[in-house]
Design goal:
The structure is a homodimer. By secondary structure, chain A is of the alpha+beta class. Chain A folds into 2 domains: about 5-70, Orthogonal Bundle (Arc Repressor Mutant, subunit A), CATH 1.10.10; about 75-220, 3-Layer(aba) Sandwich (Chorismate lyase), CATH 3.40.1410.10. The first copy, chain A, is built from 9 helices and 10 strands. Chain A has helices at about 5-20, 30-40, 40-55, 75-80, 85-90, 110-115, 145-150, 160-165, 185-190, and strands at about 60, 65-70, 95-105, 120-130, 135-145, 170-185, 200-210, 215-220, 225-235, 240-245. In chain A, β7 (about 200-210) and β8 form a beta hairpin. In chain A, α1 (about 5-20) packs across α3. The longest helix of chain A is centred in the N-terminal third of the chain and has 14 residues, at about 5-20.
């Protein structure tokens, strides 16, 4: 499939911002210049600009020329999903040691997280993740049976489960992330080498396949000095990040 | 100023998703239907859809009809910036007790956070924030002098500093947020009523005025059971949230 013109234009501008060719505060080429450069009509150029505006990369519009307002050009779906892909994308070395890979009946939490009946088989993965050889995060993954079973043919110490599952035809399409802080429980404390109750940054994630099925739930707990999440936003657009009160 | 057509269309669809009139998984009206409904040409309709796609509200495109994929329609700039506006938006009662309001020379951290010289005057606000009457967050705000001085005419116990500063002509335009976990320091411990070292969710934020000047830096620390941040993403768009390794 060839990429739509507006996708190509947005990608090109994003890259020029990322490498600094277009600096924060710099005006973008005009719509007519972009049309000329891409031999495109106005429609795709405007769609590309709308996308970049919603991503918070540019500001302006309504008559004002667009201006670069952030170099935080965002991370792709894979980069936000996969620890291995993420570490690679920032030039660091990911690593992992598998502590548990098991088929077991869903407990109440699993059932709620995966929207399945309690007692249905699920596959559980517990891995200690490293960054440049140092412990960074404890990963708890729970998969519905037909997806999780594929992992019994995979060496979970060898790298990205995501890349492997995709190579086996699993098509992940959407994810919901919840970010909060928790105190280390006994399992966290043992494997991450910290005192119980000490602060961890938690990222929980539910991922759906292209057909809408909820296929996995993750609970990743980072040592506090390893990772932060950043977001730029501005007056023009709604942020995709939502602050929630816990129930 | 009248809103551009594509802004109106995006706003209307966002609202219909938010109130559930358009459910997750439901197809959107076709481009022609939207054009008819809004008496609009295709350009603005496509711009509106590109915005909603980049926000993660809808998926599809490239020939496939758009489908609603998330009810997390995001929060506006004000809602993500202002604790008071946020609490109000979710039907909870915000509150605050001011512990410190001072004019003092910038220390090294202030200088770095606000990109000013060390020793320049800054205004510091320390407030304990409540949710429905219970302590929820300790807020440390540091403002450049000409903005911060306005707060000496304001009762910081009375409500939103943002709303007040805006009423005094301060135009906030862009913000950068960093989210991580930290252990409570002695000041946190005293005011939030927790043990030193216990987990807190921290949101740091730098805010710029419309002319690009960095006008304030915030460090908000939430009790862990109060708040989480959520984000939905999908294959079609880059997320505006970025996972970073700490230096």
């Amino acid at each position: 499939m060839t990429e739509a013109m507006h996708v190509k234009i947005a990608h090109d501008i994003r890259e020029r911002v990322r490498i600094g060719e277009l600096a924060v505060g710099a005006p973008l080429p005009s719509e007519s210049q972009l049309c000329g450069q891409w031999k495109s009509s106005r429609g795709p150029v405007r769609q590309a600009l709308a996308t970049l505006r919603a991503e918070g990369v540019i500001t302006g519009g309504a008559g004002k020329p667009p201006v670069v307002c952030s170099t935080a050009v965002g991370q792709s779906f894979d980069t936000l999903l996969s620890y291995s892909a993420w570490a690679g994308s920032i030039g660091r070395v990911p690593g992992q040691r598998t502590l548990e890979l098991s088929l077991r009946p869903a407990d109440e939490a699993d059932a709620a997280n995966l929207n399945i009946d309690k007692g249905r088989p699920v596959v559980r993965v517990l891995r200690l993740r490293y960054l440049d050889g140092e412990p960074a995060m404890l990963e708890r993954g729970t998969f519905v049976e037909h997806v999780g079973r594929l992992l019994f043919d995979f060496d979970c110490d060898s790298g990205s489960m995501w890349a492997y599952l995709q190579s086996r035809g699993v098509r992940l399409a959407t994810a919901s992330h919840v970010i909060d802080a928790v105190g280390a429980d006994p399992v966290d404390a043992t494997h991450l080498g910290v005192a119980q109750g000490s602060p961890l940054l938690r990222q929980q994630r539910s991922t759906r396949a292209a057909d809408g099925e909820l296929v996995e739930f993750h609970d990743d707990r980072y040592l506090p000095d390893i990772v932060s999440f950043t977001l730029d936003n501005n007056l023009d657009v709604r942020s995709t990040l939502v602050r929630n009160a816990k129930p």
